[in-house]
Amino acid sequence: MSNTPPPSPYDVKIATKDSGAEITWSADADFESGIRNFIVLRDGQELAQVPEDPKGKFGRPLFQSMTYHDTPSQPMPEMRYVDTTAKAGEKHSYTIITVNSVGLKSKPSAKSSAKMSH
């Protein structure tokens, strides 16, 4: 059992689209425990979890599938979330937190801000 929180996500980018704000990010694999999910914060408030319903083969829900090698066997699922509630003209900052399979949270990523266009 690991007591080490996962590495913080990084490279958070926001693209404004007709459907809302598309947030993408990068995260390093947590080799000790595996990544369970990500928490998307908007202006410091929890907005969503990605994936919403993580599933894992070994009884623990996992985003990053566990393997017994150093390299994940499948590519990691896409790290993206679309905030469909962001309205044109609003400015929001987004932060991502990684949660590993034992429930430990990373430090938040650097904030990324965007003003919604029309």
Number of helices: 0
Q: How would a crystallographer describe the biggest sheet?
A: 4 strands, antiparallel
Gyration radius, rounded: 15 Å
Name the beta content range.
Answer: 35-45%
Number of strand elements: 7
Please provide the ordered H/E string of secondary-structure elements.
EEEEEEE
Unreliable stretches (pLDDT < 50, length at least 5) are none
Strand order of the largest sheet: 4-3-6-7
Helices and strands: which structural class? mainly beta
End-to-end Cα distance, whole Å, is 48 Å
Helical content (DSSP H or I, runs of 4+) = under 10%
Residue-averaged pLDDT = 83
Which term fits the overall shape? elongated
Brief summary:
It contains no helices and seven strands.
Architecture overview:
This protein has 118 residues and is an all-beta fold. The chain has strands at residues 10-17, 20-26, 35-42, 45-50, 80-83, 91-100, 112-115. The strands form two sheets. The protein has a four-stranded antiparallel beta sheet with strand order 4-3-6-7, with no helix packed on it. Strands 1-2-5 form a three-stranded antiparallel beta sheet, with no helix packed on it. A hairpin with a 2-residue loop joins β1 (10-17) and β2.
